[in-house]
Write a structure and sequence with these properties.
Elements lengths: L9 H27 L4 H9 L17 H15 L1 H21 L2 H12 L4 E4 L15 E5 L2 E12 L6 E7 L4 H5 L4 E7 L5 E6 L10 E12 L3 E2 L5 H37 L1 E2 L2 E2 L4 H29 L5 H26 L10 H11 L6 H15 L9 E3 L6 E3 L11 H14 L5 E2 H7 L5 H13 L3 E5 L5 E6 L1 H7 L2 H4 L4 H7 L2
Helix pairs in contact: 1-3, 3-4, 3-7, 3-8, 4-5, 4-7, 7-8, 7-9, 8-9, 9-10, 9-11, 12-15
The structure holds flavin-adenine dinucleotide.
Length: about 500
C-alpha cells in the first residue's frame, strides 16, 4: 500500500525501503518516549549515522543530495516512531539547512552544512511572545556594531530549544518606514548556541510532541558575528518566505506516518475485537471509517510528494506545499479521531500509540503556519496564479432565446460617451441583474478608453443618480452598476422583461 511514486529515482526508492525497515525496527522506542518523555537522542544518532541528515545537502558539503523528496521520505517514516524524533529532524532541515543552501555563501555552507549532515541539530526562530502569525512584525533587534550584530529580544515556541547547535534567527535590522513597507526591515542569521548573551529562558510543557524540547530563547546584548548573516542586510523576509514551502511540505510529510499507524491499529484492533458475536470490523460503519482512513493517507501522500517533486524540479510550489500542509493537518485530525472511534475505549488509553498521535493533531494545524494562514495564502495565491482561468465568462442575452448565456465574443461599443456607458450597464443588468460590472469589464467594451475618461463618465453619471459606484480603500472606482433611475433612463421597461413559456401560458402574458 505504501507507494513508491513512479517519479522517484532509484536512490529515493531505496531510501524509502531502508527508512521503512528502520521505523519497523524502532517503533517500540517511540512507544517508550511516550512514557519516559526522554528525548530520543540515541535514535537520532542512528538516523544521523545513516546519513539522513544530509538528504537535502549537496554532495560537496557532505550530503546525499536526495532532495526535498528524500527529506519527506525520511520524515514520513520517522513520524511512525514518534513526533519528537520527526520534529527534531525536520526542524533541523528547515531551520538552517534550507536557508544556508539557498542564501549562504560558500564559507557559511562549508562551516555548517557538513556538521548538520552528520547530525548537528538546528532550530528556526521566527515566533516571539508578541509575534505569531504576523511574522513580519518581528521585534527582536539586531544592531550592527563593527563586525558584530548586537541582538536584543525574545523568541518563543522554538522547537529544539536547548538541544540545537545552530539557530536560524530572524531579527529586525531597520526601523525605517520605507524598509518596512518594502519588507526590507528584517535580516536572517545563523546564531550558534554558545553565543555570549544568548540563552535558554524556558521550556514549554506541551500537550503533545512528548520528549521534544520546545521553548523560549533570550537575547541580551548577544554578539553575533556579522559574517553569520544570510544574504544581504534587509533580505530576512525574502529568506523567511523562500523557506516556507519546504517547511510546510516537510511538516506535512511528518504527519503521514501517524496517519498510516492509525490504519494499522484500527484494522488490527477491529479484526480482533468481538462484539455482538462478530468482529467489529464486520460492521459496515467501521468499514466505512477504515475506507476513509485509506483515502486520506493516499490523498495526503500524493499532495506531499507531488509538491516535493515540484520543489526538486525548481518549479513554483506555493499552492502545492500550502495545500499539502493544510490538507494533511486537517485529514490527520479526522484520521486519528476515526481510528480511535473504531478502536472504542482502547483507542483512548495510552496503551496504544494512537492516543499520543491524537494529542499531536492540534499542533499540526498551528505549527509552520496555522490553518487560517494556509487559507489566506491559498486565497491570495490562488487568485494570482489562476487569474486567467478565473475570468468570468462574457455573457450576453441570447438573440432568440432571450436568456442570459455565456459567449466567446462581445461586440465592443463604438461610441465612448455617458450614453453608451449607461446603455452597457443596463444591458449588463439583463444578464447579471444582481451584479456590478468591474472596471475591466467596462474597459473591455470601450476599446481605447483611458482611466481618466472612464472616471469622468462614471462620476458624472453617479452625480446624476444614474449609477451606483463602489470604490476601494484608496478611493479608486472598482465596480459600477446602473441605479433604478439609470435603468429607466437607459431602456424602456419592456426591454428588461422576460418570462418562461410556462409562465406566459399560466399568466396569459
Ligand atoms: C509546538 C509548537 C512548535 C513550534 N515551533 C516553532 C519553531 O520552531 N519556530 C518558530 O519560529 N515558531 C514555532 N512555533 C510557532 C508557530 O509557528 C505559531 O504558533 C504560529 O505561527 C501561530 O502563532 P500564534 O501561536 O502566536 O497564534 P496567533 O498568531 O496569535 O493566532 C491566534 C489565532 O488567530 C488566528 N489568526 C491570527 N491572525 C489572523 C488573521 N489575520 N486572519 C485569520 N485568523 C488569524 C490564527 O490562525 C490562530 O488561530 C511553534 C508552535 C508550536 C505550538
Amino acid at each position: 500500500m505504501i507507494e513508491s511514486f513512479p517519479w522517484w529515482n532509484e536512490k529515493q526508492k531505496k531510501l524509502a525501503e531502508d527508512a521503512r525497515i528502520f521505523s519497523d525496527q524502532n517503533l517500540s522506542k517511540g512507544d517508550e518516549v511516550a512514557w519516559t518523555k526522554d528525548f530520543p537522542s540515541t535514535l537520532l544518532k542512528e538516523v544521523a549515522e545513516r546519513g539522513w541528515f544530509g538528504a537535502s545537502i549537496p554532495l560537496e558539503f557532505g550530503g546525499t543530495d536526495l532532495g526535498v523528496t528524500g527529506c519527506c521520505i525520511i520524515a514520513e517514516e520517522l513520524s511512525r516512531i514518534c513526533a519528537a524524533l520527526t520534529a527534531a529532524y525536520s526542524v533541523t532541515m528547515f531551520g538552517g539547512v534550507e536557508q544556508l543552501i539557498k542564501f549562504g555563501n560558500e564559507e557559511q555552507k562549508g562551516k555548517w552544512l557538513p556538521k548538520v549532515a552528520t547530525g548537528m541539530l538546528g532550530g528556526i526562530c521566527i515566533t516571539e511572545p508578541g509575534v505569531g502569525s504576523d511574522a513580519a512584525d518581528i521585534e527582536t533587534t539586531a544592531e550592527l556594531e563593527g563586525d558584530y550584530y548586537i541582538f536584543n529580544g525574545k523568541k518563543r515556541f522554538i522547537t529544539n530549544a536547548g538541544i540545537a547547535d545552530i539557530y536560524c534567527v530572524y531579527a529586525r535590522t531597520s526601523d525605517h518606514r520605507e524598509d518596512k513597507a518594502k519588507y526590507q526591515h528584517l535580516s536572517a542569521f545563523i546564531v550558534e548556541k554558545d553565543t555570549p548573551g544568548f540563552s535558554l529562558e524556558r521550556i514549554n510543557e506541551l500537550g503533545g510532541w512528548v520528549g521534544l524540547p520546545n521553548g523560549y530563547l533570550d537575547f541580551e546584548d548577544a554578539r553575533v558575528p556579522a559574517s553569520s548573516r544570510l544574504g544581504a542586510e534587509g533580505d530576512g523576509w525574502k529568506v523567511l518566505v523562500d523557506g516556507l514551502n519546504f517547511e510546510r511540505n516537510l511538516f506535512a510529510a511528518g504527519m503521514l506516518g501517524p496517519m498510516r499507524e492509525a490504519i494499522r491499529y484500527a484494522v488490527g484492533h477491529s479484526q480482533r475485537r468481538i462484539q455482538f458475536r462478530k468482529p467489529t470490523i464486520d460492521s459496515e460503519i467501521n468499514q466505512f471509517k477504515i475506507a476513509d482512513l485509506f483515502a486520506r493517507v493516499q490523498t495526503a501522500r500524493l499532495l506531499v510528494y507531488h509538491s516535493a517533486h515540484l520543489m526538486d524540479m525548481k518549479a513554483d510550489a506555493v499552492m502545492a506545499a500550502t495545500n499539502a500542509k493544510l490538507y494533511a493537518s486537517e485529514a490527520y485530525e479526522k484520521q486519528l479521531i476515526d481510528a480511535m472511534q473504531v478502536m472504542g475505549g482502547d483507542g483512548w488509553t495510552r496503551f496504544y500509540p494512537v492516543e499520543a498521535f491524537m494529542r499531536d493533531a492540534k499542533v499540526n494545524k498551528l505549527g509552520a503556519g496555522t490553518s487560517e494562514v494556509m487559507r489566506m495564502v491559498l486565497f491570495r495565491q490562488g487568485l494570482r496564479t489562476m487569474a486567467e482561468e478565473l475570468k468570468l465568462p462574457h455573457r450576453h442575452v441570447h438573440p432568440t432565446l432571450g436568456i442570459p448565456i455565456s459567449t466567446t465574443s462581445l461586440t465592443p461599443y463604438t461610441e465612448i460617451s455617458e450614453k453608451s456607458v449607461l446603455k452597457m450597464l443596463a444591458e449588463d443588468y439583463k444578464v447579471n441583474p444582481g451584479l456590478h460590472m468591474t472596471r475591466n469589464d467596462i474597459k473591455e467594451l470601450l476599446v481605447g478608453i483611458t482611466d481618466e475618461k472612464l472616471d469622468n463618465i462614471l462620476t458624472t453619471l453617479e452625480a446624476q443618480g444614474l449609477l451606483k459606484l463602489h470604490r476601494n480603500r484608496k478611493g479608486k472606482i472598482t465596480l459600477a452598476k446602473a441605479s433604478y433611475k439609470g435603468l429607466r433612463k437607459a431602456k424602456p421597461l419592456d426591454y428588461y422583461k422576460w418570462f418562461p413559456e410556462w409562465a406566459k401560458r399560466q399568466l396569459n402574458i
